[in-house]
């Protein structure tokens, strides 16, 4: 009969357990840390191109817009967000501006966010190609202006913040520390799990929990442990 539920793990037992199973901690933590180091070594700097577009009814950015108007413009932006990801639209835009990229390379890297109180929205494009980032986003924004004029007749769309490209440098140290932490936690969890499944009695205190009588003497360390529940 197993007595796992009756185990009492004190500080000394934990220290003894960790010393005995230290090889698991070193092996697994080392392996996972090496994996993190490899991933960090192959990470490269990426770039994010950002532009802001105004689609209001007038040239004055400070014009007042009612909530209904803001909702109307936001719905248009959401519609355009879907249209701009259509393969045919992207392929035509890329071809028009002589950009040697396919639609599937571009659409999954595009991002949109609309302002809550003004008809202004931000377009972003992420890529590992610095020059391509600016070229692609500028082309899409220019094409947007043309499309917006036909979809919203009274709108006067224009780019109010031209395309700017920012580098995104990966935090390699943070990644490696994260992998190291995962390795330590996983190793400790495995060590305690293995110990939980182990019924071997390694101390007098545990033996006294199984036997109804006091234990005299010590359990020799060279002997194999007594299995709880065996006769």
TrEMBL record:
<dbReference type="InterPro" id="IPR050445">
    <property type="entry name" value="Bact_polysacc_biosynth/exp"/>
</dbReference>
<dbReference type="InterPro" id="IPR003856">
    <property type="entry name" value="LPS_length_determ_N"/>
</dbReference>
<dbReference type="GO" id="GO:0004713">
    <property type="term" value="F:protein tyrosine kinase activity"/>
</dbReference>
<dbReference type="Pfam" id="PF02706">
    <property type="entry name" value="Wzz"/>
</dbReference>
<keyword id="KW-1003">Cell membrane</keyword>
<protein>
    <recommendedName>
        <fullName>Polysaccharide chain length determinant N-terminal domain-containing protein</fullName>
    </recommendedName>
</protein>
<keyword id="KW-0472">Membrane</keyword>
<comment type="similarity">
    <text>Belongs to the CpsC/CapA family.</text>
</comment>
<dbReference type="GO" id="GO:0005886">
    <property type="term" value="C:plasma membrane"/>
</dbReference>
<feature type="transmembrane region" description="Helical">
    <location>
        <begin position="176"/>
        <end position="197"/>
    </location>
</feature>
<keyword id="KW-1133">Transmembrane helix</keyword>
<feature type="transmembrane region" description="Helical">
    <location>
        <begin position="21"/>
        <end position="38"/>
    </location>
</feature>
<keyword id="KW-0812">Transmembrane</keyword>
<feature type="domain" description="Polysaccharide chain length determinant N-terminal">
    <location>
        <begin position="9"/>
        <end position="96"/>
    </location>
</feature>
